[in-house]
Amino acid sequence: MRTIILTFDVEDWFQVENLRSVYPCQTWSSCELRVSRSTHQILDILDNTGSKLITSIGKNSLRPARGEIKTMPEKQCSPRATFFFLGWIAKRLPELVREVHFRGHEVASHGYNHTLLSHMSWTQIHQDLTSSKQLLEDITGHQVLGYRAPSFSINSKHLAILQEAGYVYDSSYNSFALNRRYGRLDVSRWTKNGLSYLINDSFSELPVSNMSVGGKTLPWAGGGYFRLLWPQVFAWGVRRIMRHNGGYIFYMHPWELDAEQPRVKDLPALARFRHYLNLEKTASRLQDFLRAFRSCRFETCGAYVQAPNSKSKIH
Predict the structure, then answer these.
(1) Cα 264 to the chain's mean position, in Å?
(2) Which residue in 196, 203, 199, 234 sits closest to 218, CA to CA?
């Protein structure tokens, strides 16, 4: 059975990197918070979509043992997903974090202020990683296993800091090299294990999924490209990726379902196009995507990397 890992980066409309020149961090407290509504919309879409098999992490312990990962009987269940929360959002909306956790999804860290790792010192990075992790654990009472860097701004040196901060996996690598914000990792140095790469016995990398055609990488992991491409074309690409890799890792932001968010004036044409394209269609496209792949196994990042023999699950 093919595996799909759904991931959602929980940040609000004014925290997007494309809008940073208009909304620097010091202005955020005066902006309208809209992320709760769109995140609940995602949760409802997931609840109303059946899939074949779910794997989730037990909630009874802050540090679950490997044996506490439970596989539910094969039946029609709702997909589980990983929600990477900004600490800034979690501090103001702890009830949203608890709701995501209560509904059976994984809560992970997206850092605190959506600052690119490349824009911080090592001390600032360590503080960002530890403070966001601790905040989320205090809210849910559950261990935070994973991290995703803002705008995928990761490099190999950052991985050591992640491990020191107590993370079990990173999901920050995006192989599409034409976006200058994205970091670079040489994954060929590590052992591929299904959809993940084993960096060592206690730490894994889960890259988002792109398509390789003729030695070129095409962005196909979700986000703006999910809104840009025709749904049939996007689904075709996902099937192609799964034939080659045995599975697929998808990402999206809650603000991408919010067509009524405030419109920023005087944005450059490209930034305006990238941010506002097809927002009104995203919810229905997500529903259709989940229905189209409902025969697949949906797992959280944390469950996937902690389950034994994860490679064998994707054939």
Answers:
(1) 25
(2) 234
pLDDT digits (tens, 9 = 90+) for 25-53: 999 999 999 999 999 999 999 999 865 44
33 Cβ contact partners less than 8 Å away, ≥ 6 residues apart: 12, 92, 93
Report how far residue 290's alpha carbon sits from residue 42's, in angstroms, rounded to the nearest whole number.
Answer: 11
DSSP-derived 3-state class of residue 103:
coil
Encode 272-291: b = buried (16+ Cβ within 10 Å), e = exposed: eebbbeebebbbebbebbbe
pLDDT in tens, 129-188: 999 999 999 999 999 999 999 999 999 999 999 999 999 999 999 998 767 778 789 998
**How far lies 25's CA from each of 30, 39, 181, in Å?**
10, 21, 18
Cβ(3)–Cβ(215) below 8 Å: no
262 CB-contact burial (10 Å; exposed 0-12 / middle 13-18 / buried 19+): exposed
Which CATH number, 3.10.300.10, 3.40.718.10, 3.20.20.370, 3.20.20.100, labels domain 3-314? Answer: 3.20.20.370
What are the structure tokens assigned to 239, written together?
Answer: 């099937």
Using alpha carbons, list the distances in angstroms from residue 301 to 3, 24, 28, 58, 171: 11, 30, 29, 14, 8
| Size of the chain, expressed as the number of residues it contains | 315
